[in-house]
Design goal:
By secondary structure, the chain is an alpha/beta fold. It is about 50% helix and about 10% strand. The protein binds adenosine-5'-triphosphate and magnesium ion.
Length: about 350
């Protein structure tokens, strides 16, 4: 079903991504692959469909669950969940590993003490057979342990030829920071990785996606409504899917927009809140910057002028460049424009 709101797992449910899917499958032999794209663009779907098509055993670590100041306990917690979910495919290679216990259908990992298993050890054992290790939203691994984690991945890159790592991320700049493409000190610096960037659907594909989805759901929807959904949500598959579901449930276009805006307001408020945790001033500046951009201040001078007016104070140009750089790395904006049209509208309500 095209409008199934979960990430897709089967090729026939994945709309218009044949090329990307084939590219991913053709490169699965490589040690490191990065799949990037804005929120809701379909990264997890592409990943899951590719993994299922490949028939290879895989473990899928969902790093989105990590908090900012995560520790080893959290990383090993995620890993043990991921290993447990794929236990039947990998039990043979982890059964006898020191620091790994299998209790029924769960895998427990010791991350400290005498009998602990290091990440590099674990990878070496998994390497006994061909396995894909996928880390969804890998930019969340930035932070205090990122160096050790990257070192373990770099070790596996060099020595564990049966392993393929796939990292995905919706905060594209932060994901590249984690990998360390431009950072001479990064353990992964200078290693080639295959890169797949997912783009939004074209207007025609967006329209076609909705038409087919409504047809599958047995819902008659007039062309005007379809055009309006694509106008508002652009070709971002996750928004189109959400809108499709609301329409199938009987909502009109205004209700659909309203409900989606609610989702986006919530996400953007979380972002501002996380900045406010740094300091009240920083939080306020982020909010003002977002608002100024949503009002169409699309150059440095316009934005600077809008921001100083809102703040009622002078502002160092460094401050503004830091905020802009951060928002770009989080894939919220690019060149003074929002990447997601729903976010642009949501910001007006902050
Ligand atoms: N090509 C596609 N065909 C059909 N449905 C899709 C496609 N891409 C995404 N979707 C749908 O859009 C929604 C978002 O997809 P998915 O979770 O895979 O995206 P994502 O990029 O991983 O999002 P996030 O950044 O929030 O993790 C899901 O409901 C999924 O089913
Ligand atoms: Mg995802």
């Amino acid at each position: 079903m095209l409008f199934d709101e979960r990430p897709k797992t089967r090729r026939e449910d994945l709309f218009n991504r044949d090329e990307e899917l084939n590219q991913l499958l053709a490169n699965l032999h490589r040690p490191l692959i990065v799949v990037s794209g804005v929120r809701r663009i379909g990264k997890t779907s592409l990943l899951l469909v590719a993994l299922n098509e490949s028939k290879l055993p895989f473990i899928l670590v969902d790093a989105r669950k990590l908090k900012d100041n995560y520790g080893w306990k959290d990383v090993y917690g995620l890993l043990s969940q991921a290993l447990s979910s794929s236990l039947d495919k990998i039990v043979d290679v982890i059964r006898k590993v020191r620091g790994v216990s299998i209790l029924g259908t769960s895998v427990e990992l010791s991350w400290k003490g005498k009998r602990y298993v290091s990440l590099a050890d674990l990878f070496d054992h998994l390497n006994q057979k061909r396995i894909v290790i996928a880390i969804d939203e890998a930019q969340r691994l930035r932070g205090p342990l990122s160096r050790e984690i990257r070192e373990a991945i770099a070790h596996a890159y060099d020595y564990d030829r049966n392993l393929t790592f796939i990292l995905t991320g919706s905060e594209v700049g932060l994901l590249y920071d984690f990998v360390g493409v431009e950072d001479h000190d990064s353990p992964l610096y200078g290693r080639y990785f295959y890169e797949l960037r997912l783009d939004r659907f074209s207007r025609e594909s967006g329209v076609e996606f909705l038409r087919r989805g409504f047809k599958e759901a047995g819902k008659n929807v007039d062309e005007g409504m379809i055009q309006e959904i694509v106008n508002f949500f652009d070709g971002i598959p996750g928004w189109l899917t959400l809108a499709g579901n609301y329409v199938v449930a009987g909502k009109n276009i205004e209700e659909v927009k309203e409900m989606s805006l609610g989702v986006a307001v919530n996400e953007i408020s979380n972002l501002v809140r996380s900045k406010r945790n740094v300091s009240e001033i920083v939080g306020r500046r982020y909010r003002h910057t977002l608002k100024c951009i949503s009002e169409g201040n699309n150059s440095w001078s316009k934005l600077y002028e809008c921001l100083t007016r809102r703040e009622g104070s002078t502002l160092s140009s460094n401050s503004l460049s830091n905020i802009l750089q951060q928002l770009e790395k989080m894939s919220i904006i690019h060149d003074y424009e929002f990447l997601d049209p729903v976010y642009r509208e949501a910001v007006k309500r902050l």
